[in-house]
Amino acid sequence: MSIRSCIRVIPLLRNSINSHSSCLPRTINFNRSNTHRSIFSLCNKLDIRLYSTENKSESREIYYGSLTPQIKAVKIFSLSSSVVGVIAQPFLYNEIAATGNVPVIIAAYTAIGFFTVVTPILLHLITKKYVTHLYYKPNTKSYVANNVNFFCLTKKTEFTPEDVVVPDVPGMFTTFEVKGKALFVDPRLFEDPEHYVKIMGFDKPLDFKLYQTTDNIPNSSNKKD
């Protein structure tokens, strides 16, 4: 093979290499785009499945009492001070009795007993009706109300709108009753006011109690002019 022929072949080889190199990235990019699309569609399907099952099984918070942190803080402080007072009572009684002053002894014993026993009970009577959280279960169409018990622990009460009784004359800190238990909620704190309407029964026909008994109906035979 002569030198001239070799020189003529070199440009042809360059052109063929450039053409192959330009086609190779396109095929790779095409394969990559296809794989990305398949992975993206698979993730979307999994997200849709997981999202739908979680919404059906888990409960959703629809109400949060704004006074919940304050109530828990006050109850914890009251219980802790009562425990400290009970532990310190023997030492305090000995020191007070050593004074020999009867009025001082009576006043001190009364104050210690009030702050040790009466204060936690009084706080519990005031705050036991307050609903801290209210959850809605879409599966059973029921509600779960959380309250704080005497020892500042969460107590749950599950109910349906059929279990709710709205008293004609509500008492202090009472919005409605559930299975004989009084509960207090603030209508302004509901995320969705429709839940408050369902719980209170405002979506049902109104009963004005316009009825008459047989005793109230006058008998025509008893009428005498």
Brief synopsis:
With 225 residues, this protein is α+β, with helices and mostly antiparallel strands. It contains four helices and seven strands, in the order αβααββββββα. It has helices spanning 3-57, 68-99, 102-127, 193-200, and strands at 60-64, 133-137, 142-148, 154-159, 164-165, 176-178, 181-183.
Task: Indicate the percent of residues in helices.
Answer: 40-55%
Task: Note the run of SSEs as H and E.
Answer: HEHHEEEEEEH
Count of beta strands: 7
Apparent shape:
flat
Structural overview:
The chain is of the alpha+beta class and 225 residues long. 54% of the residues lie in helices and 14% in strands. The strands form two sheets. Strands 1-2-3-4 form a four-stranded antiparallel β-sheet, covered by helices on one side. α2 packs antiparallel against α3.
Could you outline the blueprint of secondary structure elements for this entry?
Layout: H1 3-57, E1 60-64, H2 68-99, H3 102-127, E2 133-137, E3 142-148, E4 154-159, E5 164-165, E6 176-178, E7 181-183, H4 193-200
Antiparallel strand pairs: 1-2, 2-3, 3-4, 5-6, 6-7
Helix pairs in contact: 2-3
Transmembrane segments: 73-92, 104-127
Organism: Diabrotica balteata
Family: Belongs to the TMEM70 family.
Notable traits:
about 220 residues, alpha+beta, four-stranded antiparallel β-sheet, three-stranded antiparallel β-sheet, 4 helices, about 55% helix
